[in-house]
Every structure is written in C-alpha cells, then in structure tokens.
C-alpha cells in the first residue's frame, strides 16, 4: 500500500533530515532509559504508588506517540505527523501538570482561586487527573449501555463499576474541583489555552497546537489537493506524498518530549542532567529553525 511518489520521497527525507532523525532517536532512547534504569529512582518529595503509576504511565504514552510521529515523518506523512504532535502537546501538558513541583493555574490570565483543604500538591493533582479519567469513562460506559454496545448481561455490572469508581474519585477531590472539571471539561479545570498560559508555554499553543487544529478536525481539505492545468484546458487533481511538515513535526515533537523527560527527571531523580544538557541545544536548534521557517511563510 503506497501513495504516489512515496518511495522516492522517503529516500529524500531520510537523506535531507538525517540529523533531525538522529536527534529524535537519541531523545527517544533517553526516554526509554526511564523504564530501564538499573537503580531505584530518588523522587523529589513524597510519592505514593498511585502517583508513580500515573506519572510513568503518561511518560510511556508520550514515548509511544513520539515513536509514531517519527514513523509518520519517515513515511513522508508530515501533515499527519503534525496532527499527532498536537495530541502530544496535551500529553506534555498532562505530564507537567502531574510532575511539576508547583503549579499555579490561570484562567483568562488570572490565577484560579485556591480551594481550602485541597492544595495543588503533586499527589492531589494525580487525584484530579484520575477523577477526570473515571468521570469520562462513566460517560462512555453509559453511552455504550444506552446504545446496546455492551452485552445486556454485563451492562449493569459494568455501569455499577464505572459509577463506583467515578463517585469515589469525585469524593477525593471535593465538590468544588468536581464542578471545575465539569465546567472546564478537563482534568485541570481550565482550557488547554489557559493551561499553556499557566505553565508559561503559550508559545507551544500559539505556534503549534492552534495551527494544527485544522488537521485534527478535518477542516484542511484545501491543503491536500493540488491542481494543474492541462494542455487541453482541463484540470488535473493530484493527491500525493509530500515532505511538508516532516521537519516541523520532528522539531516540535522533540521539544515536547524533551520537556517531558526534563520534568520526569526532576520528579524522579533519574540523574539524566548531563544527557539532557547535551540534547537540549540540539533540540532547540531544530525548533528555532522551524519557527523561523514558519514565520517566513506567514
């Protein structure tokens, strides 16, 4: 299964972006070392088993997404890689939310009021993340039961389990945070835009997350069809592979994964400081180059 011109383009991409793929490979290998570390981590502060499980789970998800983005870029599917990178942005925000030592949430540029008795410690943020997950799962199970997608003999039991988990988690975060999550439709209780602002990462939102929105929501059809006039006056439409978005998706995805590894290293104490200090300038060089190219196109 091949698109027109795919094989020749793949060879050109591997030649022209060899250095970028090399950086991506080194970064992925460093991330994988998180799960191959011979010594027990030395967390910065207290950390229970649930927090450890969820934090490392989000890292594992990020690394799988990163590998997929690299594979798509290698296959001359840069625009699709960019769409997947948008998902990686949200994964990165989740990782920072879970593991950054201190988080001050903002909404419309102003700090969100604290909830007495529920400080935003890393442990409580993990409970917020899980509460939103269980609430979302309950909605999904209810819809599946309603539309007969779960065997009737299992429906009541599945629904009971989902309701029990959601109720328990909601009780752990309190009614005010439960309301904020419902209103904000997110684990943080604020929008992706506000979460980016909270982390002082509006650059990621404005330069990458928002522009990639059209690719995710299917509103970019014009960018996938190219037409040319024939000698007889007719029009030829073509849909073929392209290197468009390859370098950009690799650069921004690498920046996101670098941030994830940095915050994971800080939280768990893996001792990757030296490796990160060498990788960071390489990733920054890729990102700066692609930002300049994007600005030049505007």
Outline the fold blueprint.
Elements: H1 6-16, H2 18-32, H3 49-74, H4 78-99, E1 106-107, E2 110-111, H5 122-146, H6 152-184, H7 192-198, H8 202-209, H9 213-217, E3 226-229, E4 235-238, H10 246-268, H11 273-297
Antiparallel strand pairs: 1-2, 3-4
Give a short synopsis of this structure.
With 298 residues, the chain is mainly alpha-helical. It contains eleven helices and four strands; from the N terminus they run H-H-H-H-E-E-H-H-H-H-H-E-E-H-H. The mean pLDDT is 91.
SSE string, helix = H, strand = E? HHHHEEHHHHHEEHH
- CA radius of gyration: 22 Å
Helix and strand composition category: mainly alpha
Count of helix runs: 11
Q: What's the helical proportion of residues?
A: 55-70%
Major pleated sheet: 2 strands, antiparallel
| DSSP, total strands | 4
Describe this entry's structure for a reader.
It is a single chain. The chain has 298 residues and is mainly α. It folds into 2 domains: 6-110 and 191-297, no CATH class; 113-189, no CATH class. Helices cover 67% and strands 4% of the residues. The chain has 11 helices and 4 strands. The strands form 2 sheets. It has a two-stranded antiparallel ribbon. A hairpin with a 2-residue loop joins strand 1 and strand 2 (110-111). The relative contact order is 0.18. The mean pLDDT is 91.
Task: Looking at this protein, list some descriptive labels.
2 domains; 298 residues; two-stranded antiparallel ribbon; mainly alpha
